[in-house]
């Protein structure tokens, strides 16, 4: 009898290891999908480059010396590579941001957008544009304004998150209230601003990757990398948080501290990404939901997959924003929802119960 | 030995504990019963340092929350809250693994996996280990959470209505587990139950809470008298005893209105020892 039990446990153990293997393979698969979309993101543009040349330039960039056409090199290295890389990092940051906000609020319908972070960033950017950069160089001042206001609105949430008997529902309500507040303030600026300025503000609000440069890519990359590391350290605690705050506390987690820490990390990460590219909605909502359906909510896998899903979504959206109408470049923020929604519906209908 | 002295807890105007004093020995099962809203769950939460009492002391092996600090104090506990609503995409095994949260790294070791699988086997859920926890029935979910709390290997086990959704089979499984586990590991097991008969069967010490006061504490036979239950619950009851002297409680209206179709109160007395695993009413 004992042997029978042991063999059942041994079999279960092997099954569990297989499941982990499947999850690793899914992550790898997503990485290769990302590599493909990344390459095509560089290929597409006003002048279409052959994919083979793009790959050659990228390989050359990594180390090996190949003889490459100089104009191709410049187009790839100076113009398209920063944008394509920015799409990956920003998409990933938004995906992870959404995943953790959903975890924190115990609600798969939440995203940084729900907490008013995007609206606050938009207001910050508009305010800076309205006051003509407060005498600073607008290419720094606008992102800075967006970042500061995003953090400011989040500070109100931080304060609330520190109170022990404020539950997840109250945080969502507070976030939605902030969303409306900053949207109203933003509208106010748009109403009193000149039509040209109003246009400029509107353009910022439609998130666009064309503002990406090597410099702001590296800033976003470093901030995102640090934030991801911090979140991964709490992977198990965050997983436990989804069992409800009472149960998380019963497992010995200091819920108030975890909530505050995660909220700060997520805000810094989302604020940085948003301040450089503007408002890109939908990814923060949808990427984590796709990841959840594909791999479940063990954060060791859920977190990286949310990143990859967000990155693939934004990278694909970037390709489409250049190719939907040839010669025209749509702001990527508009395209994300258009491509994301059908895919998302497909997942909801067909993939619900089959997870890796 | 968990020693509670003059514990007073108020939330707003509501008095949930008024100078409660009770001692709970290790290796025994202590069951708290009492009417709804009388402070049973709050009592457990106070022990777990989630609620701060206005007065009184709680000591375990000579140490208190104040001397140990909240985190160290809580480490001694395995606490299973009442709510079993789980809407999360995790497998049963993953939920149980979370019981040993502080020891888990990015790679789950063979040892941790085995412990979790053994705990699942112990509660009879091993065949379901890969199922999504949200697809489980309420009772299965409760058993999974029970396995999770056992993984913590606590000195004190707090269970808030652990059997509320369990069928007869799982009730039996859970309480057998509890008796064995409590004795073997010399734990202080404290649980809130609503089913008086389940409480009577398994409690070493039965504590009736009423309006923030301990109405009685002692063996089930001492505590479960018709007079006391009628006073505390405001319901007419009929208390009989089986061959071992274990009390058995039924609310009287049930017997009176059952008419000719079911045996009368006289016919079912005494309850034989073989029918000790009485179903919940």
Q: Could you give a short description of this structure?
A:
The complex is a heterodimer of chains A (356) and B (281). Chain A has 14 helices and no strands. Chain A has 356 residues and is mainly alpha-helical.
Characteristics:
heterodimer; A: about 350 residues; mainly alpha; ABC transporter involved in vitamin B12 uptake, BtuC; 14 helices; about 80% helix; globular; B: about 280 residues; alpha/beta; Rossmann fold; 3 domains; 6-stranded mixed beta sheet; 4-stranded antiparallel beta sheet; 11 helices; 12 strands; about 35% helix; about 25% strand; disordered C terminus
SSE map:
The complex is a heterodimer of chains A (356) and B (281).
Chain A: H1 2-43, H2 51-62, H3 70-105, H4 117-130, H5 138-161, H6 168-192, H7 195-205, H8 214-233, H9 235-241, H10 245-250, H11 255-277, H12 283-295, H13 299-323, H14 332-350
Helix pairs in contact in A: 1-3, 1-13, 2-3, 3-8, 3-11, 3-12, 3-13, 4-5, 4-6, 4-7, 4-11, 5-6, 5-11, 8-11, 12-13, 12-14, 13-14
Chain B: E1 2-11, E2 14-24, E3 28-33, H1 40-47, E4 55-60, E5 63-64, H2 65-68, H3 70-75, E6 77-80, H4 92-97, H5 110-122, H6 138-151, E7 156-160, H7 168-184, E8 188-192, H8 196-202, E9 205-210, E10 213-218, H9 220-223, H10 226-233, E11 237-241, E12 247-251, H11 252-257
Parallel strand pairs in B: 3-8, 3-9, 6-7, 7-8
Antiparallel strand pairs in B: 1-2, 1-4, 4-5, 9-10, 11-12
Helix pairs in contact in B: 5-6
């Amino acid at each position: 009898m004992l042997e029978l039990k042991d063999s059942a446990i041994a079999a279960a153990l092997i099954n569990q290891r297989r499941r982990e293997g499947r999850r690793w393979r899914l992550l790898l698969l997503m990485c290769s999908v990302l590599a493909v979309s990344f390459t095509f993101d560089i290929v597409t543009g006003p002048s279409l480059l052959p994919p083979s040349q793009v790959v050659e330039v990228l390989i050359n960039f990594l180390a090996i010396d190949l003889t490459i056409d100089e104009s191709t090199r410049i187009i790839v290295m100076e113009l398209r590579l920063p944008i394509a890389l920015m799409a990956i990092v920003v998409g990933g940051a938004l995906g992870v941001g959404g995943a953790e906000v959903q975890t924190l609020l115990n609600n798969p319908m939440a995203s940084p957008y729900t907490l008013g972070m995007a609206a606050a960033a938009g207001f910050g950017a508009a305010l800076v544009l309205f006051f003509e950069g407060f005498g600073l160089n607008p290419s720094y001042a606008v992102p800075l304004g967006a970042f500061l206001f995003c953090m400011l609105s989040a500070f109100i949430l931080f304060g609330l998150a520190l109170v022990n008997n404020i539950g997840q529902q109250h945080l969502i309500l507070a976030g939605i209230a902030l969303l409306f507040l900053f949207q109203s303030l933003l509208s106010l600026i748009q109403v009193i601003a000149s039509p040209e300025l109003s246009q400029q503000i509107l353009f910022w609000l439609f998130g666009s990757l064309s503002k990406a440069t090597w410099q702001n890519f590296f800033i976003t990359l470093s901030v995102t990398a640090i934030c991801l590391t911090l979140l991964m350290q709490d992977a198990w605690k965050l997983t436990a948080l989804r069992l409800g705050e009472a149960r998380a506390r019963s497992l010995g987690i200091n819920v108030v501290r975890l909530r505050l820490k995660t909220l700060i990390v997520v805000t810094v990460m989302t604020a940085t990404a948003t301040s450089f590219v503007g408002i890109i909605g939908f990814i923060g909502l949808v990427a984590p939901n796709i990841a959840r359906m594909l791999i479940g909510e063990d954060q060791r896998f859920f977190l990286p997959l949310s990143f990859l899903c967000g990155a693939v979504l934004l990278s694909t959206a970037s390709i489409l924003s250049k190719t939907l109408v040839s010669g025209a470049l749509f702001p990527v923020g508009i395209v994300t929802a258009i491509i994301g929604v059908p895919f998302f519906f497909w997942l909801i209908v067909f993939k619900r119960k089959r997870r890796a | 030995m968990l020693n509670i002295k003059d514990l007073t807890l108020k939330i707003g105007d509501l008095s949930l504990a008024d100078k409660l004093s009770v001692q709970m020995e290790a290796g025994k099962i202590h069951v708290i019963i009492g009417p709804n809203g009388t402070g049973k769950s709050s009592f457990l939460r106070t022990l777990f340092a989630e609620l701060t009492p206005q007065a009184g002391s709680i000591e375990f092996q000579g140490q208190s929350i104040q001397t140990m600090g909240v985190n160290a104090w809580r480490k001694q506990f395995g606490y299973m809250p009442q709510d079993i609503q789980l809407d999360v995409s995790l497998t049963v095994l993953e939920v149980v693994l979370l019981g040993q949260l502080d020891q888990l790294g990015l790679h789950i070791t063979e040892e941790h996996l085995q412990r979790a699988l053994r705990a699942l086997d112990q509660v009879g859920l091993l065949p379901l280990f890969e199922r999504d926890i949200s697809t489980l029935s309420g009772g299965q979910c409760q058993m999974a959470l029970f396995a999770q709390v056992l993984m913590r290997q606590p000195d004190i086990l707090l269970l808030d209505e652990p059997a509320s959704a369990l069928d007869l089979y799982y009730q039996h499984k859970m309480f057998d587990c509890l008796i064995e586990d409590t004795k073997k590991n010399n734990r202080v097991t404290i649980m809130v139950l609503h089913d008086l008969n389940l409480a009577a069967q398994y409690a070493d010490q039965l504590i009736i809470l009423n309006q923030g006061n301990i109405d009685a504490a002692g063996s089930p036979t001492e505590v479960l008298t018709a007079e006391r239950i009628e006073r505390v619950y405001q319901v007419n009851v009929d208390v009989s005893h089986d061959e071992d002297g274990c009390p058995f409680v039924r609310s009287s209206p049930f017997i009176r209105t059952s008419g000719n179709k079911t045996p009368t109160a006289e016919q079912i007395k005494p309850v034989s020892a073989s029918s000790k695993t009485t179903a919940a009413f």
